[in-house]
Amino acid sequence: MKYFPVAASALLSTIALVAGSWAGTSALTAVVCVICLVLSLGWPQLMGVTARRSLSTVILLAGVVAALGAAVVREVESLFFWSSVALAFGVMSVFVIQVLRGTGRPHRLESTLGASAGVVISTTAAGWVAGLRYPAELVGIGDSDDALGVLAVPGLTLFEDWALLDVTGTGGELSVVGLAAIGLGVSVLLACLPLRDALVLPLVVLGGFAGALGTALLWGELTLLFSGLLGLGAGALIAAMRRFLIVQGAPEGRLSAMAVGAAPIAGMGALVYFAERLLFV
């Protein structure tokens, strides 16, 4: 039960991301902002930093600005622009807050490093929004572009031909974000098994891989290689988080535990977006 808030926060975040990907950009942006809110409320408490209210505000605002920026830009090259801006100003604000606290304050270094890490995680969550918008809204794939069906998943990698690394089909925007969130959700569920790490960690990685691959086969809009790589990344991320929690112990405080659960889900956004950009042909 001591890990329940962590698992619940992670699982609810993945479910909300799947639902948001179906509902569209506005809904997904709202989901990402809520994840940033959960992260901002618990992260300073988790890090044991001082000036918690001001640092929580900075973490929240950085994540919200990054998500809203990814939701409103009109050019592909600008999808992560506001994340970079929010990250820069967020870290700068953390340093300004530490200066304004005056000299002789305790744990100044820990506060600076911990809050800066929170800003990094919250701004990378915008990758979920950017990943949703990238293939369909900004690249503009149409029905005529897939006349030969090269973007559909045929079920066997042998028949994927030169489109082995392709990402999305004519249906577009739901594929990558929904698939990544489902892979994360499967990994989170497997990570809750009360078994030894030697048994659970491989299951978590393989579960993320199988969840993503199965989703790709049912969805029919992603190639199997890309789906498998994304699923392996999701599983490895959750497996690393589980191992970290087992070694360090459960976080103290409900808000801290919820922030720990939301952190890898938020951070996965950057992996989703950049993997999509790199492997889109």
Automatic annotation (TrEMBL):
Alphabetized, the UniProt keywords read: Membrane, Signal, Transmembrane, Transmembrane helix
* Signal sequence coordinates: 1-18
Look up the domain of life of the source: Bacteria
Q: Transmembrane segments in this chain: where? A: 26-43, 55-73, 79-100, 112-130, 174-193, 200-219, 225-245, 257-275
Query: What is the protein's name according to its record?
Result: Uncharacterized protein
This chain's source organism reads Nesterenkonia xinjiangensis
